[in-house]
Design brief:
By secondary structure, the protein is an alpha+beta fold. It is built from three helices and eight strands.
Length: 125
């Protein structure tokens, strides 16, 4: 993969029902919160088809986590960077990256995650 570009689209695969609102067709902030290692897993999905994006979710996320993909949140890399976070490629798998640089305080993480969720576009499966 080429170096990360600020105009790239990132996809965060939705694995839990509390990560989205089906009735409001939106992503909830919990989808973007970092894991215990301070990272949020995403995939670089610019330049590939919708079907190819879902295939990544099915093959690289769903099978490994043992959970179905319920949807995905697409967001621009520039939106993430504007929150003083970084997106760093972390392959394998191909196209994988992590959002890093989260503040230590959970309350600050939540504020940023709320902003990211509001700026993302939800695709229901």
């Amino acid at each position: 993969m080429p170096p990360l570009d600020s105009l790239e689209i990132l996809s965060r695969f939705i694995l839990q029902t509390n990560w989205f609102s089906s009735s409001e067709n939106r992503v909830k902030y919990a989808a973007f919160l970092p894991d215990k290692n301070g990272e949020t897993s995403v995939f670089r999905t610019s330049g590939i088809t919708n079907n190819e994006i879902w295939e990544i979710g099915d093959c690289e996320v769903s099978i490994k986590r043992g959970k179905p993909i319920l949807g995905r949140a697409d967001i621009g890399t520039n939106n993430v960077i504007s929150k003083d976070l970084e997106v760093v490629p972390r392959e394998p798998p191909l196209r994988h990256a992590n959002i890093i640089g989260w503040p230590d305080e959970r309350s600050k993480q939540k504020i940023i995650a709320i902003e990211l969720a509001s700026e993302s576009f939800f695709h229901k499966r």
